[in-house]
Design brief:
With 187 residues, this protein is α/β, with parallel strands linked by helices. Helix content is 46%, strand content 13%. A five-stranded parallel β-sheet has the order 2-3-1-4-5, sandwiched between helices. Helix 1 (14-25) packs across helix 8 (168-181) and helix 3 packs parallel to helix 4 (85-93). The longest helix is centred in the N-terminal third of the chain and has 20 residues, at 52-71. It is globular.
């Protein structure tokens, strides 16, 4: 059973890559944007960046989805910005991570095993994508705040970084290869 979170700033291609990978593998796909509260969507649409208080309940709900898929042995992919290390901790351990500032929860509810796939690339390419995207609640003006908030994953987190400058098929193949080689998972 494999859980993957495709992460990065708005416009990095999380939904496109995650949904394409899930379709290719026959896995469940979730887009974290679908789980934002109406208040969060309104804030972003008005050009107001979300803060931790806005994001934590949303991240806890996403953790619950991943926990459910894990319990049922279902492979799943989640497209989620997961910009800060603490946000990734919440995806791993839920509310426990907030109180402890740690990804591990002792006992029955151990942290989920998740591969974080960080889609990374130049600001100008991402900004160009956002300018072309229509009908999304996240305006291009918030891209700087996303980069300001971003804490790229680092050891000991379980992650890979993939350049979004590659073609979509190349990105999907790279992630798929790593998943099936088992190199991405810590024992």
């Amino acid at each position: 059973m494999v859980l993957v979170v495709v992460m990065g700033v708005s416009g990095s291609g999380k939904t496109t890559v995650g949904s394409r990978l899930a379709a290719k593998l026959g896995w469940k796909f979730y887009d974290a944007d679908d789980y934002h509260s109406p208040e969060n969507k309104k804030k972003m649409a008005e050009g107001i960046p979300l803060n931790d208080e806005d994001r934590i309940p949303w991240l806890c709900a996403l953790h619950d989805i991943l926990r459910r898929e894990d319990a049922f042995g279902q492979d799943a992919i989640l497209a989620c910005s997961a910009l800060k290390k603490m946000y990734r901790y919440v995806l791993l351990s839920g509310a426990f991570a907030i109180a402890s500032n740690q990804p591990e929860e002792p006992g029955e509810n151990e942290a989920l095993k998740i591969l974080f796939v960080h889609l990374d690339g130049p600001t100008d390419i991402i900004a160009g994508r956002l300018e072309k995207r229509g009908g999304h609640f996240m305006p291009p003006e918030l891209l700087k705040s996303q980069f300001d908030t971003l804490e790229p994953p680092s050891a000991p987190e379980n992650f890979i970084t993939v350049s979004l400058e590659k073609s979509l098929p190349e990105i999907v193949l790279e992630i798929e290869s790593i998943i099936f080689q088992g190199e991405a998972f810590l024992e």
